[in-house]
Write the structure tokens for this entry.
Amino acid sequence: MASSSGSLPRYIALRVLLIIPLVWVLLTVVFLLLRVAPGDPVSATVGDRLSEDALDERRAAAGLDRPLVVQYLDYLGNVARFDFGNTFRTDTPILSIVRDQGGATLTLTVGAFLIALLIGIPLGRLAGRFRDTPGDVAIRVYGVVSYAAPLFWVGILLVVLVNAVAPSFPTNDIASPFTKLDSEAYTKTHILVVDTLLAGDTSAFLDVLQHHLLPCLTLGFLLSGVIVRLVRINVIQALQGDYVEAARARGIGEGRVVRKHAFRNALVPVITVVGLQVALTLSGAVLTEKTFNWPGVGSALVRYIGERDYIAVQGLVTFFAVVVVFTSLIVDVINALVDPRVRY
């Protein structure tokens, strides 16, 4: 790998080109998995309520009577136009669902990431600096437990504890009924925490923040375990570097050595791994939304799976796959900007 700054545009161009086959593989897998399921989407959704002639009409309207290759090509063409299809039961565009409910999932994932970073980075730094001490052991145990604990179990446990200590604190849904009654005033961005702030409604804003706390804390707890272990390992490796020994030889204090030298270099790989946790966060968001009755895209996906609306499931899973791929691209570019060694 070249380290010259002139190689950055080439690196970005190559990463963009590599996205194309990756997206194609993901779309193909999603398409085939839903086609190998028993029966067809029409029969699975409304087969017990319509006659065979009516079912054939529904299949023709959905294009399911055409050859599989034609369906596949139409599917790829629609995704290229950012058309993820419509739900079968209500004919609602998938992008409308993402627009209306994506804000809830976005705030959940962003809040969880912030909590995970606030917990994981300081603990990982302490564990790496004080390696093999009782504190390090305790932090490592926390990392293992937080990563291995079932997400729904953590959520239920937090709800039980909060109800025991503060029964009036909200433990489900995205806002109180009095806030959502005036929901038409909060649709500028479809992100409730932002819209209440833009509307200048302080009480509604604080109410929404309270409702965000437990879901974000639950998902952030899971992510923090990954960050703790990663930061710890990289801090230990950085402290063994020659540049750290040179800094110590110049009489620089241990705290400043860790803060100014080891810790900064240890954060470079963390950027990459945090970006890769987007897929884990989205999968965790589905469980978190279900646990806390959160009206996000994950809840919609679970509902459509229960209704056996394969077309809606295909659209939402495709959308999630595209988001993960392009997030990975953005993380790679940021990593190249931070670390000049990460270039072709």
Remarks:
- Residues 1-5 have pLDDT under 50 and may be disordered.
- Residues 129 and 236 are 7 Å apart (CA to CA).
